[in-house]
Amino acid sequence: MLTNANRACKAETMTHSLLRTIPVSLLLAGLVSCAGAPEPPETMAAQTQRPVAARAPSSPGIDAPELARLGTYAVGVSEEVMVLPERPILTIEGVASGQLERMERRLPVRIWYPAQTAAGAEATRYPYTLRRPGVADMELLTPGIARKDAPPATGGRFPLVFVSHGYGGWSASMSYLTENLASKGYVVAAIDHLDRPPGGKTNASLDFANVLIDRSRDQREAISQLLSAASETKSGWAALIDPGAVGLIGYSMGGYGALTTAGADIDPESPTVRLIPASGRKLPFEAPGPDVSGSIKALVAIAPWGGQPANRTWSAASLGRIRAPVLMIDGDQDDVVDYRRGVRGIFDALTSERHLLVFRGARHNVGNNPAPPDFEGPFSTWEFFADPIWRGDRMNAINQHFITAFLDLNLKGDASRRPYLSPATERSEDGVWTQSPGAQVSGATAGDGQPRYWRGFQARSATGLDLEHRSAGSSEPR
């Protein structure tokens, strides 16, 4: 059920032991580094930084590839609370006693949608308090382009795209993408999974175990509720949703959930399951949530967790049961989810049509909004946002470009987007720009006249990227 948002020992020993089985690198760079980290003292927590981004991340810069630019629709945003059915939760006391507590799950969700132009309405800003162990809380304020509760656009329905953040993220931590897609004619919903709930009932390892249990179930139940709202509601943003065109985007732990939600059942013998205390190991299988895999027509998995050998979550046969086309995105130096053995292993096991976009030299942080430009906090917090090599806004723009092409093709049936996903060369630097003597090249964008260059990129700008494509049923590169 959706309601309007309102502002408003033994177990310890076991769970600390459990935490030590999770490599620290899995909890970095969008995942929080928890192993052995002290809780921040009150004086530390009271200190704040207040970095504010200079512009809305959804509005790309001048060096962005063609399809990154904003669409023609004004954007509205609604803040809701999604009430999901009661379910068990792992708590310190419950794990110790073997009697798991059950809780109703109330999760904030933001919905961005194509809207009518609201003259004079102020654009939304997204506040968030980033809390990380051992450092001061940081107050973030990200500007947006959306207008709160703006009147929905008229004249049609639009595909639904559900976005699931990484561990420790929040509903607006990918606003560069959610607002951008809404401007192009999508209804975009992003849930806040509340990975680390307040209240002292859990600890770091139990929080992570709850994420393993909850991530896909959150996605399934939320998508199911959104589709029900679309069929039952005659007005507002829900009436805009085309229930026959659903996309799912997940980053990191969101990608772990998305692959499962799209049809890859978790292997009961997986090392991932052993990260869950014994009293909760049946939960991913006994109550996985409604099966919405048949509704998903496009899947984007950004640096998905769960393919790395130490935590391999799915069998090859299970991954082969995903039927939706897949776009995977990662950096080839991703040491959090192990690009070479983890992400590529997932890509190789898939049997649906799929693409793999690679940022050469990048690590794990390829999915979130960029770090604020005036950031002055500690390096460990900067690392939550940033890549050591790539500019965050550049990666965001490239994601906007390729995700737009992929969703337009698979959710809107726009065949004109296929050339953007099928460049003549897999390696971007191998593309050739055909130049006539005396022709102006600077600022020119590759289109029909440049079939040997990456379509939509400006001359000399397609660099540092690979894009691999495999057809449905094929295990060989094209």
Provide a descriptive summary of the structure in words.
The structure is a single chain. By secondary structure, the chain is of the alpha/beta class. It has a single domain (2-421), classed as 3-Layer(aba) Sandwich (Rossmann fold), CATH 3.40.50. The chain has helices at 10-20, 42-46, 92-97, 175-182, 204-232, 253-261, 283-286, 316-319, 339-349, 379-385, 392-411, 418-421, and strands at residues 2-4, 74-89, 101-115, 123-130, 138-148, 158-164, 187-191, 241-251, 296-302, 326-331, 354-359, 465-470. Strands 1, 2, 3, 4, 5, 6, 7, 8, 9, 10, 11 and 12 form a twelve-stranded mixed β-sheet that branches.
Can I get a quick summary?
With 478 residues, this protein is an alpha/beta fold. The chain contains 12 helices and 12 strands. The N and C termini lie far apart (45 Å).
- The shape is globular
Number of helices: 12
Low-confidence stretches: 4-47
The CATH superfamily appears as: Alpha/Beta hydrolase fold, catalytic domain
Overall tally of domains: 1
**Secondary structure: number of strands:** 12
In CATH, what is the class?
Alpha Beta
User: What fraction of the residues are assigned to beta strands by DSSP?
Assistant: 15-25%
How far apart the termini lie comes to 45 Å
The arrangement of helices and strands along the chain is: EHHEHEEEEHEHEHHEHEHEHHHE
Largest sheet entry: 12 strands, mixed
Cα-based radius of gyration, to the nearest Å:
22 Å
Name given to the CATH architecture: 3-Layer(aba) Sandwich
Overall residue-averaged pLDDT value: 87
Oligomeric state, counting identical vs distinct chains: single chain
What is the CATH topology?
Rossmann fold
